[in-house]
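Hypothesis: this fold can be encoded by more than one sequence.
Test: take the structure tokens below, design a sequence, compare later.
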């Protein structure tokens, strides 16, 4: 039987004490580890990681909201944490411990002013999926099946205080004072607050699904404003498997390629045509079909890409632009990788490192077709670790990189990882957008 929660901590004190408790458990695990190591040298660090991952996840999953969202984001970064953590935190993508039935009913009624059964003929109080911001229930009305997303209580009000608790840890990791990190925290906070606004998610869901309706093999649910509210979002129920379950069925490679192509075209169109992307590309937000189609079910996190940032960031993925040193210097300055006050040595070291990484990331775009592998992903992470050892990256004198790159990079890494899990060969269609970037910088006339 799945454990459920009758109450979610909402006050600053309750949430802080829960995190303090998790820290105490981790400290206890270390004491046990060293005690066992003194008796049996075969007691491994992997066992310690597993115990810590279980204890931290248990606390974060009870807190929900931004605390659990951090775990979800970390689960996508296979280079930052040991595997025990990324595997455990991946549960936050669609199978976190859910609210109990009574709490769901109370939360629904508080938001809509009505009980679920006054709107629907049937409403299943056992959730179908539970993640960081809310959980999904199946409902029925007039023979039609709906997915009803109910937000956890108090989540929006806890985001700022949760992030304040996270800031000292992040500041210590990056070696920067809080003031220097503020622009990045502001970006994360804005996105998390947007994710708690189901009215905004409803508008964006309708807008993006309509704009992308002609993309082959991608489909979306219909949304129902008349049944929704700021904390409840109602849409069609879509059938399909999450990525892990889909792959366990051993689908043909042609089917995996078809799905991967659909996802790739979906993201290419959003980014290079609409300048707004579904910026939460973890597997829990997609439903894979045996016929090679994929459903997209969550537009809570959408990154609107400023045009100015777009024309100064994505040109670095185009080889002919990347080979022009004058343009590269302008681009790196604009996206805050190098600064006028940097010494020549620092400037050259950072420029070399950044261009090596962008050359690696742009590899798929340099041929009409590309096959994604886990080895390619490992190469990206290895390069990231190598760059992190550069003194000005590990302990920077000032924060480097535009805040707009946070969610754009997260999106790319998420898509690349899914492509690798599918072992997909795709047509990259880079020619559909690289030309306008070359033209923008006047290099087509060179």
């Amino acid at each position: 039987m799945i454990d459920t929660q009758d109450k979610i901590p909402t006050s600053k004190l309750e949430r802080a004490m829960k995190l303090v408790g998790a820290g105490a458990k981790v400290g206890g695990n270390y004491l046990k580890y060293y005690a066992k190591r003194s008796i049996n040298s075969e007691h491994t660090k992997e066992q310690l990681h597993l115990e810590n991952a279980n204890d931290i996840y248990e606390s974060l999953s009870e807190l929900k909201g931004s605390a659990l969202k951090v775990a979800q984001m970390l689960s996508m970064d296979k280079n930052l944490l040991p595997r025990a953590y990324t595997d455990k935190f991946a549960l936050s993508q669609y199978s976190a411990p859910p609210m109990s039935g009574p709490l769901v009913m109370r939360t629904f009624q508080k938001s809509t002013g009505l009980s679920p059964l006054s709107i629907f003929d049937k409403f299943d109080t056992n959730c179908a999926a539970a993640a960081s911001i809310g959980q999904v229930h199946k409902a029925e009305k007039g023979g039609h099946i709906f997915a009803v997303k109910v937000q956890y209580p108090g989540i929006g009000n806890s985001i700022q205080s949760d992030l304040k608790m996270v800031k000292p840890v992040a500041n210590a990791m990056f070696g920067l004072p809080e003031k220097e990190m503020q622009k990045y925290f502001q970006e994360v906070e804005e996105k998390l607050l947007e994710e708690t606004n189901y009215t905004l998610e409803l508008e964006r869901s309708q807008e993006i699904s309509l704009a992308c309706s002609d993309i082959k093999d991608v489909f979306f649910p219909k949304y129902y404003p008349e049944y929704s509210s700021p904390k409840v979002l109602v849409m069609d129920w879509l059938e399909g498997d999450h990525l892990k379950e889909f792959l366990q069925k051993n689908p043909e490679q042609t089917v995996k390629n078809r799905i991967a192509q659909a996802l790739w075209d979906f993201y290419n169109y959003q980014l290079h045509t609409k300048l707004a992307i579904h910026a939460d590309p973890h597997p829990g937000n997609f439903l894979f079909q045996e016929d090679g189609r994929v459903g997209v079910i969550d537009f809570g996190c959408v990154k609107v890409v400023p045009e100015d940032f777009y024309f100064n960031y994505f040109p670095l993925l185009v080889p002919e632009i990347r080979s022009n040193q004058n343009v590269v210097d302008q681009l790196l300055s604009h996206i805050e990788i190098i600064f006028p006050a940097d010494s020549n040595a620092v400037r050259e070291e950072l420029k070399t490192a950044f261009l090596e990484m962008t050359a690696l990331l742009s590899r798929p775009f340099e041929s009409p077709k590309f096959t994604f592998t886990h080895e390619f992903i490992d190469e990206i992470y290895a390069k990231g670790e190598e760059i992190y050892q550069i003194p000005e990256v590990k302990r920077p004198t000032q924060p480097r990189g535009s805040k707009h790159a946070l969610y754009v990079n997260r999106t790319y890494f998420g898509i690349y990882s899914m492509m690798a899990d599918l072992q997909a060969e795709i047509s990259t269609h880079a020619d559909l957008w690289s030309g306008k970037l070359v033209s923008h910088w006047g290099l087509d006339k060179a």
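Residues 101-153+197-302 form a domain with the Transferase(Phosphotransferase); domain 1 fold (CATH 1.10.510.10). The CA atoms of residues 49 and 260 lie 33 Å apart.
Hypothesis status: open.
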